[in-house]
Amino acid sequence: RRPALAAQAMSVLAVPMTKEGDLAEHLAWMNRAVQAARRVREPVVTTGVLVNRATVLMHAGDPAAWRAVADVPRDARSPGERRQLLRASGNLAHACACLGHYAQAESFLLRGRELSGDAGDPFLAVALDSTGLLIDWATGRWTGLDERAQRLARANDDGARIFAEAQLVIGLVLLARGELVTAKARLRSALEAASTGGAVWVEVAAAAGLARMRLARGDAEGAAGQALDALDVVRRKGIWVWAAEIAPVLTDAL
Questions:
Q1: Residue-level pLDDT at 196
Q2: For 72, which DSSP code?
Q3: What distance in Å separates the CA atoms of residue 244 and residue 200, rounded to the nearest whole number?
Q4: 90: Cα separation from own chain's centroid
Q5: pTM, two decimal places
Q6: What pLDDT, on the 0 to 100 scale, is given for residue 220?
Q7: Is the pLDDT of residue 77 over 90?
Q8: Counting Cβ atoms within 10 Å, is residue 220 exposed (0-12), middle (13-18) or buried (19+)?
Q9: How far apart are CA 218 and CA 199, in angstroms?
Q10: Sign of the dihedral defined by the CA atoms of residues 146, 151, 154, 160, in that order
Q11: pLDDT tens digits, residue range 124-147?
């Protein structure tokens, strides 16, 4: 009876960040959300659903994601639409960072920071900062990175996904430096926060770091066990591109 609310709810259920549901279920929710939004014809609702559709497809590594991105409006006619466009930039920057499309991730991140000055949404601004950490880690811009990540973790210790991503970056930097005891603690913290806070990609990436550490210490059996558990999370979710972090160390351990 309330198609606008139904469209918004279904589009949220379509976003595949938590362990609940698999990709087929998320895509089914997305199709229903798009159909409901067409009946509503409210610009804010339609834009929000299109943003989530692009987000889902991008996280899944579906080539159709780029067409879905093109379907998202470029300009906003109201504050509500402007917030949706900010959310689009943040979501797509994050998804591209997880996929390895770093140039595109930085482009979306820049657009998001331009929009965030007008939107005045502190949560989305922090999410952009967290994505910036992931991009800087992946592209080798490590100077001062752990200090920035620590500040973000301290400021967002109750925000599970942001906290988990910050802890992941800290743990990976420490691992690269050979500071194994503190790296292990940070990566475990990231894994625990991600597994309960709806951040499957972070959980898998943290498990990969811990497995690499075990393998470096000669514990191939322990590394394989940890990596197989993480791969099982990916298998149940059905988003195989998320295995990119875990597959190499699992192969070496086996």
A1: 85
A2: S
A3: 13
A4: 10
A5: 0.93
A6: 98
A7: no
A8: middle
A9: 29
A10: negative
A11: 889 999 999 999 999 999 999 999
Q: What torsion, rounded to 10 degrees, do the Cα atoms 135, 139, 144, 145 define?
A: 40
Report how far apart, in Å, the C-alpha atoms of 39 and of each of 33, 46, 134 are: 10, 10, 38
In single-letter form, the type of residue at position 30 comes to M
The alpha carbon of 197 is separated from its chain's Cα centroid by a whole number of angstroms, namely: 12
Residue 85: C-alpha distances to residues 36, 74, 161, 232 (Å): 20, 8, 21, 34
DSSP SS3 for 141: coil
To which H or E segment does residue 173 belong? Answer: helix 160-177
Give the residue carrying structure tokens 């952009």.
Answer: 128
- CA atoms of 206 and 55, how far apart (whole Å): 22
Query: Hey, is 49 helix, strand or coil?
Result: helix
Expressed in angstroms, the distance from the first to the final Cα of the chain is 54
Of 78-82, 101-105, 155-159, the poorest mean pLDDT is in 155-159
Backbone phi and psi for residue 47, each to the nearest 5 degrees, phi listed first: -65, -45
Lookup: tokens for 151: 């500040």
